[in-house]
Amino acid sequence: MRPTALARSRFSIEPDQLEAGSFAAEAVAGLTKIPKRLPPKFFYDSTGSDLFERITALPEYYPTRCELSILRERADEIAALIPSGAALIEFGSGSSMKTRTLLDAARDLAAYVPVDISAEFLDAQAANLRQEYPSIAMLPVAADFGTAFYLPEAVADMPRAGFFPGSTIGNLEPPEAAVFLRQAGKILGTGAVFVVGVDLIKDEKVLNKAYNDSAGVTAAFNRNLLVRMNRELGADFDLASFEHHAFFNRELHRIEMHLASLKRQRVQVAGAHVTFRVGETIHTENSYKYTIESLQCLARSVGWTPLNVWTDSKKYFSVHVLKFTGEAVRRPQQ
Ligand code: TRP
C-alpha cells in the first residue's frame, strides 16, 4: 500500500530534515539544481524494470539485439579468451539471455558471480541458473557494482573474467567510466579478462529513434520518475504537462534524456517548491556512445589492454575483450 496520508504528511517536512540518500532527499536536491536533474537509479522500481524489459524488445531499440547477435556469433572466439576453470563475474546482472551465451560457450567455467543491488532478483536468477548449469557454482553478490566489493572466498584462486553488457558503461560520465574500469580491474585482478558491450556512435537518426520509440515505451519509462514522485513523495506533478525529450548531443557524443515542462508551472515535491519555465527540463539520463578507438583509449588509460573487439554487421554495437595489466588489490587476511 502507498498511503496518501503518509505522502501528504511529508509536505510539512523541511528539505534539511529529509533522510540523506533517500529518494526524497535526492529528488529535492536534483530538482533545486540548475539545470534540474534526477538520478537515473530511481527509474528502476518494479514498473520501471518492466518498462525497461519492454524497451529492450522494441523494434527501434537496436542495442540489445545487436549485442546478442555479436555474443551468439562470436561466443566461441570470446570463450577462447576466457581461461579454463574461470569465475565469470557479471557487473549488474540484468540480462540472463546474454549471460547464457557465455555460460554455454565457456564450457569449463567453475563459477558464476552475478553482482546486483537487488538481492531478490539475484536469488531468483541464481536459482534458475543452478538447475540449468549444475557444474557451475552460482555465487551471487548483493552489492552496488559501482562500489568496491569483495568477491566470494570460493573464487579467490580461480582465474577471473568480468562481463559488463548492455552499454551500461555509457550511462556513466566518461571520467566515471574510467574510475569504474579501474575499480573493476582491482576487483577482478591482474590477468583478468573483461567482456564489455559498448554502443557505437552512428547515424543520428538511428540513435534518436532508438530513444524515441513510436509506441512511447521509453517516454513512459522516463515519466515513471514523475509517477513515482507523485506516489511515493506526495508530489503533485501534472503528468500531462511534461514531455519525454531525448536527443543525440553530437558534441558530447551522448543521448540525453529529459522531461520537459510544456508550461510555466510550480510543483511541490517532499516539502520543496519547484518552478518550471516553459520548455525547462529535468535531465534524467545520459547514454554516451563511443568509437572502438575511444573506448580502447579509455580502457588503456586505466590498465586494461584491448585483446579483441567485434561488431554486428551494421557496426551499430561493439563487444570488447580487455585484459587487466594494471595492479590488483587483494582481500585483507582475516
Ligand atoms: N545502457 C542502455 C542505453 O543507454 C540501456 C539504458 C539505460 C536505457 N537507461 C536507459 C535505455 C534509458 C533507454 C532509456 O541505451
| Backbone shape | globular
Largest sheet: 8 strands, mixed
Low-confidence stretches: 1-12
As a percent range, the share of helical residues equals 25-40%
E-strand count: 14
Percentage of residues in DSSP E strands: 15-25%
- Average pLDDT figure: 92
**Order of SSEs:** HHEHHHEHEHEEEHEHHEEEEEHEE
User: Total number of helical segments?
Assistant: 11
Ligands in the model, by name, code or SMILES, are: tryptophan
**Termini distance?**
44 Å
Q: From the alpha-carbon coordinates, what is the Rg to the nearest angstrom? A: 21 Å
Going by helix content, strand content and strand pairing, the class is: alpha/beta
